[in-house]
Write a structure and sequence with these properties.
The chain is 30% helix and 30% strand. It has 277 residues and is of the alpha/beta class. The protein has a six-stranded mixed β-sheet, sandwiched between helices. It has a four-stranded antiparallel β-sheet with strand order 2-1-4-5, with helices on one face. Strands 11-13-12 form a three-stranded antiparallel β-sheet.
Length: 277
């Protein structure tokens, strides 16, 4: 497993604001779809900006494939960011693609057309004539077609309807390979359920979880709590469901939403299980 992104002893705070991160360290492998989860305000968007060198930490560093991430044209030809909020020029989608695609050596017009069709984007329209959801879909189609080594998506499903969310999931499921990594930042765990290979959960400015789904299946059990000593439980149509420390190394079912709820509401217990294993 090769490491694509390394965060070392990173500290960051906004001017006249509280500290977001202090001494944060994190290593993320290449070739995976990574779910970056956390409650609103925990620093997910800030971390995305730090990984993309859009903002600079007061301490520590981010490295991308072994090189310090600095704001250069060469770096931005290899990564793509779709922020939660963005502004696009007052031109047509076609014009935007024609002028911007040359900056990305791996851009595929064929893939762009395919993604636009799947996401139901009208390429001839001007951005100003599109709804926010339509603009986001057009930008997502372009970002995916750039085939960047690192694709950073911040709350990508916000503003998308159910059909568009399903189409995006289908595209992303086939996107990552050995040379490409996707990081999806969200507070909606169900939007990336059964999609991600790795889960990173931020809690109070630190990394609570950074494990592959396979590792988490060995650490925790998920499901009906009868017969198990649950560290977190909640009511469902099927009865009381929850999460507990697994008593074997066999991979069982995985429930990302249950894990996220446990991480938020039973943080100490989740941390203890991870530390003991």
């Amino acid at each position: 497993m090769s490491i694509m992104i390394t965060v070392r002893n990173l500290s960051f705070s906004y001017p006249r604001g509280s500290r977001v991160f202090e001494g944060l360290s994190l290593a993320l492998p290449a070739g995976e779809i990574i779910g970056l989860l956390g409650q609103n305000g925990v620093g997910k968007s800030t971390l995305i900006k730090l990984l993309a060198a859009l903002i600079t930490p007061q301490q520590g560093e981010v490295t991308f494939n072994g090189e310090k991430a600095v704001r250069t044209a060469e770096l931005y030809s290899r990564l793509m960011v779709v922020p939660e909020e963005f502004t696009l020029p007052k031109v047509s989608v076609e014009s935007f693609v024609a002028h911007t695609a040359p900056l990305y050596p791996a851009f595929s017009r064929e893939q762009f057309d395919t993604y636009c069709k799947a996401l139901e984007v009208e390429c001839s329209a001007r951005f100003t004539d599109l709804s926010m959801g339509q603009r986001k879909k057009a930008y997502l189609a372009f970002a995916l077609a750039c085939n960047a080594e690192l694709l950073l998506l911040d709350e990508p499903t916000n503003g998308l309807d159910i059909t568009a969310k399903a189409a995006l999931r289908s595209i992303l499921a086939q996107y990552a390979d050995e040379s490409k990594t996707v990081i999806i930042s969200t507070h909606q765990a169900h939007d990336i359920e059964n999609l991600v290979d790795r889960v990173v959960i931020l809690h109070q400015g630190d990394v609570l979880i950074n494990q592959s789904v396979s590792e988490l299946q060995q650490l925790f059990g998920f499901g009906i709590t009868a017969g198990h000593e649950a560290i977190y439980s909640q009511q469902s149509v099927a009865g009381t469901v929850g999460i507990w420390a697994a008593d074997n190394t066999e991979e069982g079912r995985f429930d990302l939403e249950l894990l996220f709820n446990a991480a938020v509401k039973a943080t100490k217990s989740v941390r203890r299980v991870i530390a003991q294993k």
